[in-house]
Amino acid sequence: MHPSLQQDLSQFPQILDQVRQLAATFLAGLHERPVCPPLAAQQLKPGDDRLSDEGVGAQAALDYFWQRYADGISASAGPRYFGFVTGGVTPAALAADWLVSAIDQNSQLSHDTIAAAIELAAIEQLKSLLGLPADFSGTLVSGATMANFCGLAIGRQWLGERYGVNVAQQGMAALGKVQVLAASPHSSSEKALSMLGIGRDALQLVATLPDSEAIDPDALERHLAAHPTTPTLVLASAGTVNTVAFDNIPRLLALRERYGFWLHVDAAFGGIAASSPAYAPLLEGWQQADSITVDAHKWLNVPYDSAIQFTRHLALQMQVFQNQSAYLEAPDLRPDNYLHLTPENSRRFRALPLWMSLVAYGRSGVRDMVERNVQLAKRLGEGLAASRGFQLLAPVNLNVVCFALTDVVGDAEAARDGFLERLNQHGAIRCTATRYRGQPAVRAALVNWMTEEQDIALALEALRTCRFTAA
After folding, report:
1. In the predicted model, is pLDDT for residue 471 greater than 60?
2. Which of 123, 272, 346, 392 has minimal CB crowding within 10 Å?
3. Looking at the predicted structure, is the pLDDT value of residue 52 above 70?
4. Dihedral sign from CA coordinates of 381, 386, 388, 391
5. Origin, by domain of life (predicted)?
6. Is there a contact between 86 and 431 (Cβ–Cβ < 8 Å)?
7. Among the residues of 210-313, which ranges form H helices?
């Protein structure tokens, strides 16, 4: 055995303890750590892209990394990171994720590990939490992009079946032109269309309701009536990026009955609102969708990477993703045979952090995260609306605050970008740039389990301080 490997084998407990100490140090300083490190700290140091001949061993490598790069790590796991709908990591999920790497299980159904059974249990618990019916199956994927990819891939197969084509076998050329209709789709869906061979040009934007990002069902019906024979996928939003708008799913279901399309619901973070009786009505009817996307590394606060794709068309899913090989489990119609249900063959045991977090905190724990974040987002919105130099661009519907700068002299986008640069340098809060109805805007998304009242006070102080600070 190589000397460094032999040394690390003998010092395994010390290595793990060193990691524990580094993690404890990081978490203890999370509230003070900048949410956006200086750009200089985010750069690789000279020579660190070159591979050494002998290596230095695990402990020295850990020291080397932490001493040189700890300042470049964001406090994105903390309570005032409001960018990109990034959740934190609950203690139970973190503990599980450490175990995932230590036990290193492949989650495919191989009959030599409990991993597949735990994943199925996590899916069943999540369905119960979100009010999804028994006829949905679900699988863990890396994120909303892959969950949307899977839902649209199954939808593509369903369209082919309706038109007498096996797309998985014959390809998209056999099916021909497909239309994909949405009002405010997430960019990951467009990426999925590109990967699936449907093409980004297949996406056609339908008009929204007045002063909303939600689809106008009447406009959708007019389009469907004008193209009655075109194979159609409809992408519904259950929580848009800028304003957390929800499409009227019951109206879309009624249109599906008339026009026969595949209905995919992108509920990457908004779907978790179904855990709260106060907000579950926003998702009325999603139980009858054909496929659904939900993220776990957002509002469920498990580590990257973790999302779930749900569908009620398991047989079609296996037609798309089955993997025939003499040395692997043969395809059969069961919801835990993950080898045949997603793009990945080998998969890390990413279900364990989700399962352990649900076991640790239960229905009421998730509900508390959701309802507290919504309350705090509304508090942040109220504070901004009452502050000079800010304007809310939409009501705070759930957990995202979308706002713009007022009293701007000159270029509005440049003013917005300068404000965000000052905010990043301040380090207390992280928000991200967006555009809303053609206007340069800023968004703050609250999904972290640790965010509390004092964080909103600190956030408002930082926003007000940076608003009129000289560039």
Report:
1. no
2. 346
3. yes
4. positive
5. Bacteria
6. no
7. 217-226, 249-259
